[in-house]
Each structure stands twice: as C-alpha cells, then as structure tokens.
Amino acid sequence: MKPDFPDTGLTVVVATRNGVCWLPDLFASLARQTLMLARLSILDDASTDGTWDLVRDAAVPGGQTVAGRQETNEGAIGTFQRLLSMVDTEYFALCDQDDVWLSDKLENSARLLEMSGADLVYTDLRVVDEDLNELAPSMWRLSNIVPVTGHAVVPLLLKNSVTGCTVVARRQLLERALPFPDGIPMHDWWLALVAACGSGVQALHEQTVLYRQHGTNALGAAKFSSKGLSDLLERRHLTMGTYTLTRLSGRLALIRGLEERNLAHLPFLRRFYRLPTGLRLVLSPIYLGYTVTRAHVLGWRNLLVDAALTCLPLGSSHKGVTA
To answer: What positions belong to coiled-coil segments (predicted)?
Structure first.
C-alpha cells in the first residue's frame, strides 16, 4: 500500500556541482520511483562543465521541475540551505548528484515516515564504485554506524548516523532548522539533531541508495578502522591534529545552534569540548561515563573511539576549542 500523501506532496532537492558524469544515472533513477514526486528542485552551484545544460533540461514524470543556478560557488551547506528555504510541499527528500536511487526508495521511506510520526527518516546505503560495482553491501556495517531512532540527541551528536542523500522528512522540521547555524559540519547532521529534538528520527533498515565513491566525493564512505581514518584524513588533506580540532569545533557549532534555539541544552559537552587537551585527558573517565550513560546504544567500540579522538593528544594543539 502506498503512503497516502496530501496534494501538497513531496519535493526532492538536488544540489549540483560539476556533476555531468553522474546526473544522467541519477535522473533516470528518479524517473523510476514508485512514489511520484510533486517537484524536483535543482540548484547548480556555479558548475564549470556541462552540468547546467543537463539541469536545465531535467524532468520527472508527472512532477514539476524547478532549476536555478548560482554564479558563485557557495558549497553544499549553503546550496542546500537555499534549496530547503524554497520547499513548500508537505515533505521533502535530500538528493546528491552522484548517487542512484533504488526504485522504491521514496515509497518505503515515506511509508515509515507516516507510520512512525517522526520528523525524519533515513536509510542504509549500498556502497559502489564509479561504475556502480558493489564495494560494500551496507554502509552501516562498513562504517560501524548504529541506526539510532527516536530522540537520540547525544548519540547523534557523538556519531552522525544520518546520510543526507537517504533523508525523507517533513517540511515542519525546516521551521526549526533554518537558517543553518554558522560552523556546522554538514546540513544532514544538523537536520538529524533538530528532528531528534522534535518528533524524532526513524531508521529504515534497507539499502535504498547506490552510494557512488569517486575521487571528488564531498565526504564519502570510510571503513571503521585505523586505515579507514587514515584514508579519510588523506582524502580531506588533514593532519590528525587539524581533524580532531575541526571535529570538536563542528560539535560545538551544533550544540550552540541547538541551545540558541532552545531545542536542547548540553552544558557538560559544551564545556568539556572547550577544555584544553590536557584537561580533557585528565577528565576522560568522566567524559566516557557521560557518553556511556547517555549514548550506550552506540556500543563500546564507537564510544571508545570517540573518547580517544576527543581526549587524547593525537597530534592536536593543547589549547582549548573556542568555537
């Protein structure tokens, strides 16, 4: 049985940037969806290849296509913010230019959204190479992602389990989430936290997206291992010290955004993340006790890795984070 959507329907939002190689596959997969979308909203972020020509001619069966172009490169967060600010349907879905959606992705996610009453639904992904050959059957297993549900604010802050290109959510979520706070790591992480502070998040335990890996992924899939972390640092051209400081700064930006909007208050984490590395190391048992108590659903492996990256002087500066 298909979900009973009102006439206001669902908008799929796509941010594009030099994606001429990938967009034909994506658009074809959107056209095959078993749940018809009301609108496809595309914003091109100052592409320098033939992407705009593809975007301008894009269409979906039975739906409206709205395409726009930014003359200067704003980045993923800024582009998605503009796209989401224009959503006027009851529901929306986030979409990346280089992925392929399985045909029942929207239908199954929308059904769970309606049945659960949650603000946001997300799913697992199948990791594939540039030619769509399978690299890993499950992104969740590859990256040791625990699919948390409900009002899991602290677990989501410690490890974001929500991959943006799988998200289907209610427009009412945007009333609390927009505009995005300064300094957040990614828009999907912020949307997940805001949803957890509202009617909650729900995880669909299915792979609904072919998550394509190539040399220009904004984030990409990483194996949960020391080699996976090393590959991640190499891909982002970061040192361990820069990575750990950026990680804490991003979390502080998320916490600050939640507290400024009275969505959640996390004074312990806000103060702890601002401490110098030496003090965080000394107080690490307290931090671990806090996270175990409030985020035990993540499991000991995730919590120990989080504590190590947060509290150990892994090449980072001994100064506190002031974000």
So the answer is: none
Average of per-residue pLDDT across 282-309: 96
**CATH 3.90.550.10 domain locations along the chain:** 10-212
- State the Cα–Cα distance between residues 137 and 249, nearest whole angstrom: 32
Question: Residue 39 and residue 64: Cα distance in Å, rounded?
Answer: 5
Distance CA 87, CA 97 (A): 18
- Residues 6+ positions from 222 with CB-CB distance below 8 Å: 142, 143, 228, 229, 231, 232
* 3-state class (DSSP) for residue 159: coil
**121 CB neighbour count, 10 Å cutoff:** 28
HSE value, Cβ hemisphere, 13 Å, CA-based, for 193: 34
Q: What are phi and psi of 193, to 5 degrees?
A: -65, -40
Architecture of the domain spanning 10-212 = Alpha-Beta Complex (3.90)
Q: What is the pTM of this model?
A: 0.91
Is 104 exposed, middle or buried, given 0-12, 13-18 or 19+ CB atoms closer than 10 A?
A: middle
Q: What distance in Å separates the CA atoms of residue 119 and residue 191, rounded to the nearest whole number?
A: 10
- Angle, alpha carbons 154-155-161 (nearest 5°): 135
In whole angstroms, how large is the CA radius of gyration of the chain? 19
Distance CA(18)–CA(50), nearest Å, equals 7
